[in-house]
Amino acid sequence: MTYPFRVVDCGGQGTQEWIEARLGIPSASNYSKLITTKGKRSTSFDGYCMGLAAEVLTGKPYSWHKSELTITSASPHSPDTAIDPNELDALDWGTYHEPEARAYYSLLTDTDVVQVDFCKHPNLEAGCSPDGLIDVNQDGMLGGLEIKCPKNPQIHMEYYKSGEIPTKYIQQVQGCMWITGRGFWDFMSYHPKLKPFICRVYRNDDLITAMTEEVTEAVQLIEQYVREFKFEGVT
Q1: How far apart are CA 125 and CA 231, in angstroms?
Q2: For residues 165, 171, 173 and 174, what is the CA-based torsion angle, rounded to 10 degrees?
Q3: Residue whose C-alpha is closest to residue 120's, from 229, 232, 2, 8
Q4: Angle at 103 between CA 115 and CA 137, to 5 degrees
Q5: Which residue blocks in 164-204 are alpha helix, DSSP H?
Q6: How many other CB atoms are there within 10 angstroms of residue 167's CB atom?
């Protein structure tokens, strides 16, 4: 399938190449640092932009990328196959169980899930890292998948009981739909000992319009910070 967005192949999410591909680029998992669920600018807007500019200037990931990189050691595809998932912290637990959750989603919904590493807006240096793309038309729309695997079973149960996407993931999921142009995104919470929770989220065009404005301004501010703080060294 030809996509209307740019797909960056990094050899898998969580790899060093994936981290480097996202340096300095606002990504959907952190869009809450730019915009609130009400479409207003987040108080962390400037700090997030400054952190991304620092990535460009130093060539090194900021704190949020560092945490994402460290969890790759928990991957089931890691050379270290002797992993006891019960000994993993919450981030590692989620990464370890994500492939299992994705496979279970495919089984439950009879849907093929396409994995991609990093998706970039066609015209803007902004992106997202979907847990999966759904390339089969459903009710006139294509979609995607966001997976969360909370280690704490109570958190999963709370998600299930609420019957809707947790508020803290709204910007991430809407951001994925903005970048990819998709019409829906399925949110899945998975725990291997509990009944899975899946809910469908549709595009919120009002929020996406506001998000487009805020992320565009963020990209411009990042570029401004890079110009302002670039140091050529002592001559």
Answers
A1: 23
A2: 110
A3: 8
A4: 60
A5: 170-180
A6: 10
Give CA 232 to chain center in angstroms: 34
Which two structure tokens, joined as six digits, stand for 22? Answer: 């996202």
- Burial of 57-70, coded b for 16+ CB within 10 Å and e otherwise, reads eeeebbeebeebee
Taking only the tens place, the pLDDT of each residue in 18-71 is 999 999 999 999 999 999 999 999 999 999 999 999 999 999 997 654 445 444
Q: Taking the model in full, what pTM does it have?
A: 0.91
Query: And the tokens for 208?
Result: 């996406």
**Domains, in order of start, for the chain:** 6-229 (3.90.320.10)
- 10 Å CB burial of residue 109 (0-12, 13-18, 19+) is middle
Enter the DSSP assignment of 119.
E
